[in-house]
């Protein structure tokens, strides 16, 4: 079992050492004379738990900034046209680019909803990140398509038993306006039977929410509830358009709701995310970037800043969304949703750690480290990333990054050109 | 007259060379065999005009993240208590820290509203940035204070004749709710008589706006107009709470309005900035960060992203605030307000240039450079900064930066401690 020692690092304002054994934090405290297979000098750096991106579509990095400043309908048409041309190779390089970006911005774990699950798993396995990779149901109310997808889901799940432990299979339903109730139920049952995380989009736009009410006299949250799909292993992305009863349902079932503020702003979906209400009702609130086609990047730290600013602004309360809760949203809340002991720098927890270089103008004055990290710095402050006890970025270098940039660029040209 | 040659740099998607003579761009185009006093290799980089921060309080960097998540009243009380302890030395180091931060984030010019103008001018002179530094009137309706300030303003203006040409003196009035009409008029007259930029805060909060209406039956914009203070040399910060008539007044007079979105969100001042309306009415819209006490950093690129996102969101239109207009807001519009030929990469213009390192995941795919720069990258992409023909940052290194961090940290501890 490999060992790793981080010396002289700042943790909660004190200098300490962190000793990692295998994939867990074994000891925190001064370790005079101790040695390890690998030693990292933490001088001038602070350690934080790795950030978790709880909603993204990894390979959409290939569509980054290809269509800007266009109305939503035109944007979706273009995105779907390009996505129809994706193949395994494209998804693989798109996912590699996404993971590179996430590591560089301090993310150690992500929950993905995209196509061609095995290609994404291969990218994540190679790059050392922790990942929850879903098989994504979207049947367009077509029974044959649903059958095909169900068979595929079972096959990929069987394959996933060979994945390393830091990769976990999960089940996604795109949304209730694209997928039949029968498929939603079957997907949910599959997740429950195999003890897997279940994820879906929920109430991202006002129009989809109103459509549900018109057609079923149910809001999307009520619809998911009626199908028995809410609960502590359910992760719902967006949840922008919720009424009081929806908040109660999500809270009462301990469901996770993932806020994707940058994407919501850019696509003009809404911004009055009910953080306080969901938290108080008992829901587990996390944060995600959404795909790079809408959010442009996969930078969770940047999204945390935007989330804080928007909560303060729309609630007209500068004390809304305090920094300590914001850190929880991006770390421990995510770990809770995913059922892993991560998101904290503590003995026994998984060693998913990030070292922050504090020797820059963004961290002066130094009085408030978390304030500086989230509100003042940019994500080039992340120097070293450790996932599952293994160093995957050091001195901002990720092995193979040049090849990833080249291949992703080539791939993006190929899939964007043919239209 | 010194010369500078930037070789093999990307400009609007083509590779070219840029030849700088003295403080101006002399020639753009391939320069086989040409030489210069200094040659920079632009391979893998793109050139943009330097960004302009049109509203800040530079030395407030010393108050960065010292008070977070508190209601506005408590925040202001704390900020004012610390500001009362500022001395020349503190303002000097706070301004150095601010300028370091601005250079690192691609800003080549700023308009400052703060105290102890000479200390700020000294910092700006040493660091090579272009700066418009105002003497700031705030008399609290106290006649003696006003007299003292007027004498001081005249003295600093006289001194400013010795400043290098890239530093310019201007006149500020803090706001109409802190300063008497007599002083506002006198300050405005001083600016006009000496052909100086005039700047002030305007309609930042709803309460100050309502207060004006209650007390004078005038909105703040109408108040400034009645005093004859609107016009092309007037730069008003915030302008968040404007009615249709205000927009007409600001537009009709060609006044500049500076949007400070991050600060406005954080202090919950508002976010429905009327960009389209002001632009259409003929006002000149620019962007600023405000002071680091409220915005946490002085990163104009980051503010540009937030501005785009918020315009799309509150207008419920994903095509609002297109990227090309956003670049103008941060460059040529600012140059117009300040009366300088900058904000564009063109022969004859001032050589205020920034080289962007595009060899990173943020710029892949490469199809949309400006989209990637503003929406995907963080400001560590700024590699080289040239102001007035002189290289002031290269390879992200600014001379003397370590000393600035140390002295600013010391100074912040000193002024924050004594409360």
Would you mind describing this structure in some detail?
Two copies of one chain form a homodimer. With 419 residues, the first copy, chain A, is an alpha/beta fold. Chain A has two domains: 3-49 and 343-401, Urease, subunit C, domain 1 (Roll); 51-338, Metal-dependent hydrolases (TIM Barrel), CATH 3.20.20.140. Helices cover 41% and strands 22% of the residues of chain A. Chain A has helices at 72-83, 88-104, 117-127, 143-160, 181-193, 206-216, 220-226, 244-252, 261-266, 275-281, 292-295, 300-314, 323-330, 332-338, 369-376, 401-417, and strands spanning 3-11, 14-21, 24-28, 38-41, 45-49, 51-56, 107-113, 130-137, 167-173, 198-202, 234-238, 256-259, 284-287, 353-357, 382-387, 390-393. In chain A, strands 6-7-8-9-10-11-12-13 form an eight-stranded parallel β-sheet, sandwiched between helices. Chain A has a four-stranded mixed β-sheet with strand order 3-2-1-4, with no helix packed on it. Chain A has a four-stranded antiparallel β-sheet with strand order 5-14-15-16, with no helix packed on it. In chain A, helix 7 runs parallel beside helix 8 (244-252). Chain A is globular. The mean pLDDT of chain A is 96. Chains A and B meet through helix 2, helix 9, helix 12, helix 15 and helix 16 of A and helix 2, helix 9, helix 12, helix 15 and helix 16 of B.
């Amino acid at each position: 079992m490999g060992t790793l020692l981080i010396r002289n690092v700042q943790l909660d304002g004190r200098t300490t050492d962190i000793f990692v054994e295998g994939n867990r934090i074994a000891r925190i405290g001064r370790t005079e004379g101790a040695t390890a297979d690998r030693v990292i000098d933490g001088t001038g750096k602070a350690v934080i738990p790795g950030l978790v991106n709880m909603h993204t579509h990894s390979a959409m990095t290939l569509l980054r900034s290809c269509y800007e400043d266009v109305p939503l309908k035109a944007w979706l048409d273009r995105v779907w046209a390009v996505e129809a041309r994706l193949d395994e190779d494209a998804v693989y390089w798109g996912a590699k680019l996404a993971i590179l970006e996430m590591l560089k911005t301090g993310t150690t774990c992500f929950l993905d909803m995209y196509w061609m699950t095995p290609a994404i798993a291969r990218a994540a396995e190679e790059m050392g990140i922790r990942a929850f990779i879903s098989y994504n149901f979207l049947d367009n109310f077509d029974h044959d398509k649903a059958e095909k997808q169900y068979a595929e889901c079972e096959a990929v799940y069987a394959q996933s038993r060979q994945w390393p432990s830091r990769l976990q299979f999960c089940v996604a339903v795109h949304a209730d306006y694209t997928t039949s109730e029968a498929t939603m139920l079957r997907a949910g049952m599959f997740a429950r039977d195999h003890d897997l995380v279940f994820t879906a989009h929920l109430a991202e736009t006002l129009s989809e929410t109103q459509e549900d009410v018109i057609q079923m006299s149910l809001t999307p949250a009520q619809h998911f509830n009626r199908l028995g799909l809410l609960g502590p292993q359910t992760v719902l992305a967006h949840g922008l358009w919720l009424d009081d009863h929806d908040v109660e349902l999500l809270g009462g079932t301990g469901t996770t709701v993932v806020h994707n503020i940058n994407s919501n702003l850019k696509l003009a979906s809404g911004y009055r995310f009910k953080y306080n209400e969901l938290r108080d009702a008992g829901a587990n609130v996390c944060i995600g970037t959404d795909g790079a086609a809408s959010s442009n990047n996969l930078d969770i730290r940047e999204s945390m800043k935007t989330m804080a600013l928007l909560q303060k602004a729309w609630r007209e309360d500068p004390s809304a969304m305090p920094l300590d809760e914001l850190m929880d949203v991006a770390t421990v809340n995510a770990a809770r949703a995913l059922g892993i002991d991560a998101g904290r720098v503590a003995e026994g927890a998984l060693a998913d750690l990030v070292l922050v270089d504090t020797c820059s103008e963004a961290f002066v004055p130094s009085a408030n480290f978390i304030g500086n990290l989230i509100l003042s710095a940019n994500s080039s402050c992340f120097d070293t990333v450790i996932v599952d006890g293994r160093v995957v970025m050091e001195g901002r270098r990720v092995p193979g990054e040049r090849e990833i940039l080249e291949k992703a660029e080539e791939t993006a040209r190929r899939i964007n050109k043919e239209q």
